[in-house]
Design brief:
Layout lengths: L2 H34 L5 H13 L2 H12 L4 H10 L7 H26 L2 H9 L4 H9 L4 H16 L3 H7 L9 H10 L3 H28 L6
Helix pairs in contact: 1-5, 1-8, 2-5, 3-9, 5-8, 5-9, 6-7, 8-11, 10-11
Length: 225
């Protein structure tokens, strides 16, 4: 495997890890709110959160490219503030990946939170436990499967991204060139041996990820409060 492909694997791993960690912080409270609220605007927000599941990646990437460009209000403000471009940079890849992978974090967590029995929280409240403490002690322990599934799906989905990262990051070796783009480039240049090597690695990785999720979820017992 050539050094550029090894660099692409490293960039992809970093991108997937950072995206997953950020979505834990962003997605957990959002999933909790969606699981517990009865506000009239819940369905529109659920639809907005799930939009990346059905929206073509190139469409999302195109509008993110316009939104994050240095000529736009957001991209220009960020560039003036930090000196970092959001387009064709690793920072832009992270932002795009967070948006594109959002439903893969939120939906498993929302389902897990909705399955938690309200009696657990009521019992905790009756014991004088504060709401935030009750959430961490009564709810989250029962949602371990949801957290695991959300984390693994988010990480794996980010590893396999193509359209969005190509539109936002381009193909800069060592910075924005990820595995999926490297495979595409190898196919374009008829370097099928290199393409096969990366593609098989992704195939094996995807299978092992799903196998791990199913195995751990089967072995992980539900935990009552």
């Amino acid at each position: 495997m050539n050094p550029e492909d090894l660099a692409a694997i490293w960039v992809t791993s970093q991108l997937a890890l950072v995206t997953t960690l950020l979505l834990f912080v962003i997605g957990t409270p959002l999933a909790w709110w969606l699981a517990t609220t009865k506000r009239w605007y819940k369905p529109p927000l659920e639809a907005l959160t799930a939009l990346p599941l059905v929206l073509p990646p190139t469409v999302l990437g195109f509008y993110l490219l316009l939104l994050l460009s240095p000529n736009s209000a957001i991209g220009g403000f960020f560039f003036e503030l930090t000196g970092v471009r959001l387009t064709f940079s690793f920072t832009g890849l992270v932002l795009a990946s967070v948006i594109y992978s959002l439903p893969f974090m939120v939906q498993p967590l929302q389902v897990a939170f909705e399955r938690v029995q309200e009696q657990c929280l009521e019992d905790a409240y009756a014991l004088g436990v504060r709401k935030i403490t009750a959430v961490f002690t009564a709810v989250f322990p029962q949602c371990r499967r949801g957290f695991l599934t959300a984390a693994v799906l988010t990480f794996a989905h980010t590893v396999g991204e193509f359209g969005v990262v190509l539109m936002i990051g381009g193909n800069i070796p060592g910075e924005t060139r990820v595995i999926s783009i490297a495979i595409y480039e190898h196919v374009e240049t008829i370097s099928y041996a290199d393409a096969h090597l990366l593609a098989i690695a992704l195939l094996i990785f995807s299978f092992l990820v799903l196998l791990a999720v199913f195995t751990i979820n089967r072995q992980l017992p539900l935990r009552a409060y």
